[in-house]
């Protein structure tokens, strides 16, 4: 359990000014659980052993406690940790109840320390934050005349956080990716590799995600096998005798911000005022949409016409912005024909454009809204629809979402669906939905089975005192 996120250190006045920190492990005792520990720091002052009760909790919006676990009095030596190796299910926090546990993509944790037999009614509050910054790196490696190569080939890529060494073996059937980093702030890496075919489409053949605490100890590697279809259809995958490999890496670094006292009354007043003002603004924009006040453009579906405002549509959608700023007919005609989507879908899209909200969304609505968002390049809406579908996957709809992701070249959604299916493989591969899917989409089924075979080829490093 070395893949951990550490909080900034803090001092507990009630415990003789001793120094502490919190450790959150996204992979706990099992890969399905989160672990949570309280640590007394090594450079801590005070006695060699100090006794304390503690409670660790995950908080939701408005600081409501979503999950808490309490420990009886423990003896902490310096540089010693106590906590819970199985604190909460990862899937619940990051997938099925993500919006509850991660409002605005922020996970809030709380630790309460006390020395008396009973937990005190009032306590002194400290506030600290840890920012996880995400960096995305993508590049294409073009290999000329791969059919004539008689030895292996290598390519190196350097970044300020990490070095990549890409090696294709002499037999041209596997790719080794070696990664080296000496940056201690780097906590997580994901890698998605694809082959670009003759039509410019990306065919994913490997996606790996893992925490990388051990990178600083040396080189970490993983291997990917090229699918057999690569050599069987050279005209598609080797156009003009060139193999194009697409790499997408996501790197996450952690930065800490020091502790400060938390003044509840003032912060709650400011937060409440901000929430109230935002709600009023959203209500006003919803009225603007519903009543069509000063509208200057109409969106026409085959069954219904909607009034809208060019400036608001342009601010939310690059497609509308280009449409209204060019010499296209929509600029002067006063209407836009959108006959490829149902009226209900366009209504939901406009409601989101004006209010940034999705009301009473059902799964079928989400998939249609996803397509409209992709068409109009409303990326935030597309992302929210994607998250909704990920959180509501089931054996009955997984194949449909996989096809949707493929058609819209959404590798993130596709990989999430594949992960879900592989996690349910014993049940899923015996279902009628899978049998139908193999018949109607054999290439996608083949790609999924290939990923199933190779999904365990990557090394994941694993393993404090726990309850």
Automatic annotation (TrEMBL):
Q: Taxonomy-wise, where does this protein's organism fall, top ranks first? A: Eukaryota, Metazoa, Ecdysozoa, Arthropoda, Chelicerata
Q: Which GO terms describe its biological process?
A: protein catabolic process
Check the record and name the Pfam families matching this protein: BTB (PF00651), MATH_2 (PF22486)
What protein is this chain from?
TD and POZ domain-containing protein 2
List each copy of the BTB domain by range. 295-362
In what residue span(s) does the MATH domain sit? 1-113
Could you name the domain of life of the organism this protein comes from?
Eukaryota
InterPro entries xref list: BTB/POZ_dom, MATH/TRAF_dom, SKP1/BTB/POZ_sf, TRAF-like
The protein's matches in CDD domains, at most eight in alphabetical order, are given as: BTB_POZ_ZBTB_KLHL-like, MATH
């Amino acid at each position: 359990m070395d893949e951990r996120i550490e909080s900034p250190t803090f001092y507990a006045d009630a415990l003789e000014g001793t120094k502490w920190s919190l450790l959150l492990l996204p992979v706990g005792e099992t890969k399905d659980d989160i672990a949570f520990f309280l640590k007394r720091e090594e450079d801590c002052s005070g006695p060699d052993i100090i006794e304390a009760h503690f409670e660790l909790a995950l908080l939701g919006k408005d600081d409501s406690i979503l999950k808490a676990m309490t420990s009886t009095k423990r003896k902490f030596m310096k540089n010693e940790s106590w906590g819970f190796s199985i604190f909460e299910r990862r899937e619940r926090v990051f997938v099925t109840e993500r919006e509850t546990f991660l409002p605005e993509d922020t996970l809030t944790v709380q630790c309460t320390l006390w020395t008396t037999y009973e937990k005190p009614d009032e306590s002194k509050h400290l506030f600290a934050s840890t920012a996880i910054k995400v960096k995305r790196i993508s590049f294409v490696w073009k290999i000329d005349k791969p059919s004539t190569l008689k030895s292996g080939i290598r390519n190196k890529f350097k970044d300020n956080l990490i070095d990549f060494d890409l090696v294709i073996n002499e037999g041209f059937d596997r790719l080794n990716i070696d990664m080296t980093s000496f940056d201690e702030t780097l906590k997580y890496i994901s890698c998605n590799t694809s082959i670009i075919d003759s039509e410019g489409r990306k065919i994913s053949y490997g996606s790996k995600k893992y925490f990388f605490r051990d990178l600083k100890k040396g080189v970490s590697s993983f291997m990917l096998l090229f699918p057999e279809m690569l050599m069987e259809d050279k005209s598609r995958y080797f156009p003009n005798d060139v193999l194009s490999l697409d790499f997408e890496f996501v790197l996450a670094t952690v930065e800490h911000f020091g502790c400060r006292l938390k003044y509840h009354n003032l912060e709650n007043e400011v937060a409440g005022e901000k929430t109230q003002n935002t709600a009023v603004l959203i209500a006003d924009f919803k009225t603007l949409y519903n009543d069509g006040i000063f509208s200057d453009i109409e969106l026409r579906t085959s069954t219904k016409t909607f009034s809208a405002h060019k400036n608001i549509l342009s601010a939310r959608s690059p497609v509308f912005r280009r449409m209204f700023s060019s010499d296209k007919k929509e600029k002067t005609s006063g209407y836009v024909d959108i006959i490829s989507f149902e009226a209900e879908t366009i209504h939901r899209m406009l409601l989101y454009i004006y209010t940034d909200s999705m009301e009473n969304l059902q799964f079928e609505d989400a998939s249609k809204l996803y397509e409209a968002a992709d068409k109009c390049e409303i990326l935030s809406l597309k992302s929210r629809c994607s998250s909704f579908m990920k959180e509501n996957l089931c054996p009955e709809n997984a194949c449909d979402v996989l096809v949707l992701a493929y058609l819209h070249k959404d590798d993130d959604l596709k990989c999430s669906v594949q992960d879900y299916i592989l996690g349910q493989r014993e049940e899923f591969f015996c279902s009628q939905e899978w049998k139908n899917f193999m018949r109607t989409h054999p290439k996608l089924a083949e790609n999924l089975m290939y990923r199933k075979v190779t999904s365990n080829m990557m090394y994941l490093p694993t393993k404090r005192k726990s309850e």
